[in-house]
């Protein structure tokens, strides 16, 4: 296993921190997973044979949701049941990739573009459907993947918490179509994670994230479990390497 290179000796890697109170979390994934060892203060929803349960929505609304949208709405709705409505941040690296590949293929074959399919493929479609179906009038932000990966959503949440007492953050990913997966790293399963975050210091578990630019020397393996896998396994600290940075994270009891 190849280790990460040490930083340049002339200067230490710049470091910044984010701290939150983690009020609640909810996770769903298409592959069943035992939940007895997961993080405290949240829940893992049943996989339901790889299709998230959105029975809280009317039939006509459920029919418009893709498997990815169902997953995101399921975990977001569960958090809303626990903590009420609040501003939200939705994050996905590639969004509804199956839809826009179908549309591009159809255009290449000379087919007309479906307005309905287009409206469900834009990157804020999942966040918009959740907001509309939930009757929420509070602001939401839809983010795409960037150099900070899923941790970019924490940065956005920290900014929103300057103006609101709590924020819902939702991450959701799915396997890419084969035409893309050969060129980009992607999830092997469909999953969605939601967290209700508030300012650090409140009476709930504390989530701390530290960003270090560059490639630090890390003694553990470079392919250590990511944040989502760690939540399932009950691991309360770890790191994720991004493009030009490393994010260390830890969960502590209040």
Spans with pLDDT under 50 lasting ≥5 residues? 1-10, 216-225
Please state the average pLDDT score: 86
CATH architecture: 3-Layer(aba) Sandwich
The largest β sheet comes out as: 9 strands, mixed
What string gives the helices and strands in order?
Answer: EEHHEHHHEHEHEEHEE
Name the CATH superfamily assignment.
Thiolase/Chalcone synthase
Helix coverage percent: 25-40%
Query: Percent of residues in beta strands?
Result: 25-35%
Total beta strand runs: 9
So how many helices? Answer: 8
CATH topology: Peroxisomal Thiolase, Chain A, domain 1
Q: What characteristic shape results from the CA principal axes?
A: globular
Radius of gyration: 19 Å
- Please identify the structural class as seen in this structure: alpha/beta
End-to-end Cα distance: 36 Å
Description:
Helix 2 crosses helix 5. Strands 1, 2, 3, 4, 5, 6, 7, 8 and 9 form a 9-stranded mixed sheet that branches. This protein has one domain: 3-Layer(aba) Sandwich (Peroxisomal Thiolase, Chain A, domain 1). Strand 8 and strand 9 (about 245-250) form a beta hairpin. The model is unreliable at about 1-10 and about 215-225 (pLDDT under 50). It is built from 8 helices and 9 strands. It has helices at about 60-65, 65-85, 95-110, 115-120, 125-135, 150-160, 180, 225-235; strands at about 15-30, 40-45, 90, 140-145, 165-175, 190-200, 205-215, 235-240, 245-250. Helix content is about 25%, strand content about 25%. With about 250 residues, it is α/β, with parallel strands linked by helices.
